[in-house]
Structures are given as structure tokens and as C-alpha cells.
Design goal:
Keywords: GTP-binding, Initiation factor, Nucleotide-binding, Protein biosynthesis. By secondary structure, this protein is α+β, with helices and mostly antiparallel strands. It folds into three domains: 99 residues, Defensin A-like (2-Layer Sandwich), CATH 3.30.30; 59 residues, no CATH class; 216 residues, Serine Threonine Protein Phosphatase 5, Tetratricopeptide repeat, CATH 1.25.40.180. It contains 17 helices and nine strands. The strands form three sheets. A four-stranded antiparallel β-sheet has the order 3-4-6-5. β7 and β8 form a beta hairpin. The longest helix is centred in the C-terminal third of the chain and has 24 residues. Bound molecules: zinc ion. Zinc ion binds next to loops.
């Protein structure tokens, strides 16, 4: 067990503030790589922060879910990640959420309060120098998360028995970008409930009353969303403007905007995928607008389906159909040019086996070539390319991509 200084700028080997050095282990099971963060809990303890904060932070940085694993008593993330990179994320976390900005001491604590206007603020106060600062909740996803987490804890502490009881029935099958299978059509219908039958949550803004959903791991939130989409599909409501609006808002709320197109794709695509795209055009367009990562995930959904469903593979795993599908996404303004390029650049085995991923990209070669030339020669037609703005008020939900807050999101598959 190696201990290192909490403050990466301090080189003194006898500094009193130390923490465990991160230990990771990369595992490969059934063609699936994962990186286990073996001692994340111990590090969190050294920093006097809940391990979930660190896990969430890494999750935002990697743009990939960090999951808990019971057997290892720890956390893991899909893909192979260098320990040094993850250690640097921990240092980044410390700089932002642990070390006092005035005296550099790491003995700080975080608290949350609400002013009379109902604005929620997270404060960091230093035990050493007494300095207190307010953290900018709006500029920072983890601060938002911390605010919700602390409010939730506060509410639970105040009314011990009055915490919300949610029906968290789990279906056996999962729909999520990590573990993609088909829809169960089963939905618990409670995912959007904002009922607050206790005193503690009535003192909390409606905005915050659902925060327990955000404590769930990403994969679970994706499952929850998948169940909702499955239910709407069974009810034949996926084309309703109201439903589209709700699904967009729900993806926002669950902070899964990137994954949402993948989840919907998994849920609705059949071997008649061109028709499916037509049928659910509005939903796809809304979910993918200004959401490059989401667009890429939609392409990954196709890869995953080809990998998993024999009938779909038979029907669409050929150059002609693949080109048609890609062109359709392009023509309908669901996926933008640049996204096709980044997707095409690198075959990943995260969604299907490597060979299939490669073959799909080879099948796309002509389309990509065409796209590059079309791009050069169609500048004057640009105005026609844009879909008219829909007459629905989506307020500001469309523009916020959940990952924009950190400048240096690292795509898990590019490592
Ligand atoms: Zn201080």
C-alpha cells in the first residue's frame, strides 16, 4: 500500500496529508475489458469524501459509467484505462473539491444550504483557516450532484422514516449502452413520479425532489429510461409530440442524453430499420440535435444490434443497406457529418466484436467518401439542409449536453 501526498504540488515526502495511491486492475472477461478501481473507497476515506463523489467525477471525466461491484468491494469502469490517467482525475477532483483555495489545506468539508429564494448552494469550508467559498453549482456537474446528494442526506436525516419509497422493481433484462439487450416492454411507470409524501421533501424544490434517481449508477438510469421507452412503444405513443417532449426531458433529468439515442435505437430498431427511422424520426431528431455523442451512440446502436440479433444482421449487414441507413440518418438531419467521420475513424469492440465493427466501417467507406465530396460541393445548398424548427416548445432542454461542463471529456473507447 503506497501512500502519496494529497496535494500533487507538494513534493515533501513527509507531508502530513497523504492518501492511498490508486490501484487498478484491468480485467478481460467475455471479450469485455473493465478496469477495477480497487481502492477507491480507501482513497475517498483519506479525503473525507463519499466514494460516490469520486466515482461520479471519474464517470463524468470518462463519459462512461462507473459501476459498483460487490465481489470486489469496489468500483469499476468499462474499458481499459491507465492507472496514471485515473490518478490524475483524482488529483483534479482534489483540486476542485478538497483543497482549500486559500490555504491549500485539504481539511475541508462540503455543506449545502438553501437561501430564502430557494437557491441551493454548496459551500466548501476550511477547518484550517476558516475560509469558506461557494461552489458554482451551475458551472459544474459534480457540484450539482453533490448538492443533490447532500440535500438528500439532509432530508433523510431530518425525517428518518419519511424517505420516499420508490418502486424500484428491476426487470431481468437490461437496456443500456453498457449491457445492451432488447426491450422487455416492462415499465414500472414510476420513473417520472415526483410524489413527495413527507415533510422533508416538501421543503425541497420540485427540481430536487427526484434526486434519488441521480444517485443510481448510470447503467441503472439507462435501464430505467429503457423501460420507459419500452412502455411508450407498447402504448404506441412514441410518435406523440408530448411523449417525445417527455422522453427528452427525462433523458435530461437522468443525465443520459448521450446514451438516450442508443437506448431508443435498441428499443425500436428491427430488421426494417429504414422504416423505423422514418417512424420515429421526430424522437431521434430531438434526442440527437446538438448532441454529437448521442449521434455517435445511435450509430453504435446499429453495431450492437448487428452483433446481437441474427435476423437484423441477416437483413442489414451488407454494404447496400448499411449505406442506405447511414444516408437516411444524414438526410433526416439526425446525424451530422462530423459525427460520421469520428465514428468511422475507429472501430471499437465496445458494442460488438471487433471484426464486425471493422466490417461495418468498411461497408461505410463509400458513404463516407461520398459525404466528404458532398460536403465540399454543397455549400450553397446548406440552407435547404436544415429541418424547419419544430413548433414545439422544448424550452432549453435540447441544448444542454450533459457532458459539456468538463472541457476534456475522454471518450472511453479512444484509449
Ligand atoms: Zn484554508
Amino acid at each position: 500500500m503506497t501512500m502519496i501526498n494529497i496535494d500533487r504540488r507538494k513534493l515533501d515526502p513527509f507531508d502530513r496529508y497523504t492518501m492511498h495511491k490508486l490501484v487498478v486492475q484491468v480485467e478481460c472477461k467475455r471479450n469485455c475489458m473493465k478496469t477495477i478501481l480497487i481502492n477507491l473507497s480507501a482513497i475517498a476515506k483519506d479525503l473525507y469524501r463519499p466514494p460516490i463523489y469520486l466515482a461520479q467525477f471519474i464517470c463524468y471525466k470518462l463519459s462512461a459509467p462507473v459501476k459498483t461491484s460487490k465481489e470486489q468491494d469496489g468500483y469499476f469502469v468499462n474499458g481499459a484505462h491507465a492507472c496514471e490517467k485515473l490518478q490524475n482525475f483524482i488529483y483534479d477532483f482534489i483540486d476542485r473539491y478538497v483543497i482549500c483555495s486559500k490555504c491549500d489545506n485539504p481539511e475541508t468539508k462540503l455543506s449545502v444550504n438553501k437561501d430564502q429564494k430557494g437557491d441551493v448552494a454548496v459551500h466548501q469550508s476550511c477547518n484550517a483557516c476558516g475560509h469558506s467559498r461557494t461552489m458554482d453549482r451551475k458551472a459544474d456537474r459534480l457540484t450539482q450532484y453533490i448538492a443533490k446528494h447532500l440535500l438528500n442526506a439532509k432530508a433523510k436525516g431530518e425525517v428518518s422514516s419519511g424517505t420516499k419509497k420508490k418502486n424500484r422493481s428491476k426487470s431481468k433484462k437490461h437496456i443500456n449502452p453498457v449491457n445492451a439487450t432488447e426491450s422487455t416492454g416492462e415499465a414500472n411507470g414510476t420513473s417520472t413520479s415526483t410524489d413527495s409524501g413527507d415533510d422533508s421533501s416538501s421543503s425541497i424544490d420540485d427540481d430536487w425532489s427526484d434526486d434519488s434517481d441521480l444517485d443510481k449508477q448510470l447503467a441503472e438510469r439507462c435501464d430505467q429510461y429503457g423501460r420507459l421507452v419500452g412502455k411508450k412503444k407498447t402504448d404506441q405513443k412514441l410518435n406523440d409530440i408530448e411523449t417525445v417532449k417527455d422522453l427528452l426531458a427525462e433523458a435530461e433529468r437522468l443525465e443520459i442524453m448521450e446514451q438516450a439515442p442508443f437506448i431508443v435505437g435498441q428499443c425500436v430498431f428491427t430488421e426494417n430499420i429504414l422504416k423505423d427511422i422514418d417512424d420515429y424520426k421526430l424522437l431521434f431528431t430531438k434526442l440527437c440535435t446538438k448532441n454529437a455523442k448521442g449521434q455517435k451512440y445511435l450509430l453504435h446502436a446499429i453495431e450492437a444490434l448487428i452483433g446481437e440479433h441474427e435476423e437484423i444482421r441477416k437483413k442489414i449487414f451488407n454494404k447496400k443497406t448499411m449505406s442506405k441507413i447511414l444516408l437516411k440518418f444524414y438526410d433526416e438531419d439526425i446525424i451530422e457529418e462530423d459525427t460520421f467521420y469520428t465514428w468511422h475513424e475507429k472501430a471499437s469492440k465496445r458494442f460488438t466484436d471487433k471484426n464486425t465493427a471493422k466490417e461495418i466501417r468498411e461497408m461505410a467507406n463509400d458513404f463516407i467518401k461520398w459525404l466528404r465530396t458532398a460536403e465540399e460541393s454543397s455549400d450553397e445548398e446548406d440552407d435547404d439542409d436544415k429541418l424547419p424548427e419544430p413548433q414545439i416548445d422544448f424550452t432549453d432542454t435540447v441544448n444542454k449536453s450533459p457532458v459539456k461542463d468538463y472541457g476534456e471529456i475522454i471518450d472511453a473507447e479512444n484509449i
